[in-house]
Specification:
single chain; alpha+beta; eight-stranded antiparallel β-sheet; two-stranded antiparallel sheet; 5 helices; disordered N terminus
Amino acid sequence: MKLFTISFITLAITLFVSCSDDQENTVSLEDITHTSDKFDHIDDKKETVEIKDEKPKKGYFLTAFDSIYKDASWFMLDSLLFPDRFGPSKMEKWYLLNQKDSIVALHYEFKDSLRTKNAFFNWIDCYGPTCTSYQVGSQFKKQSRNSLFLIGANQLVYLESKSPIAADKLVGILNEKKKDQNWIYVLEIPGKKKTRWSTIKEGEINELKKTQD
């Protein structure tokens, strides 16, 4: 349990503003992220209330985040996000917050690779608040936050953070068996830097060629 100001409660509520483009209410990640900057000028003298940390006892991200984001508070996202539309068999959706950063962590499992790729390709075909279309190898528009996609045979992982994301370290923690580390695409979108596309087969990383947008 941690103490946060009432200002946090107000901001947390306003994060989940729904948008609709196919008569299905879906929360944009833009509504969820960019929050850590908003707490810089909170008055510590304001009334405080308790916010329950919802950290799970087990889960896909638990081992990795206990190593990387030790002091973060966990909050479950129960709003509908874009990949939810593609029929995942399992999913975890988390929002983590500490004094320096805010992290969005999504993990989806699908029945087969076709569903997984369909979810990913549709996502990047209308990516971000401006619905910009990207292809494999594209350079994404520079942004303030850092993003990481991991696309496997039947799973899709998405992370977004204010701080740089150490993709190599994270992949190694998510699966310590190097030969079991297989990702069709690893898409790193560093804040204000060039996009990096790669693939991982049996633990070996190979960078993909860039395409012209």
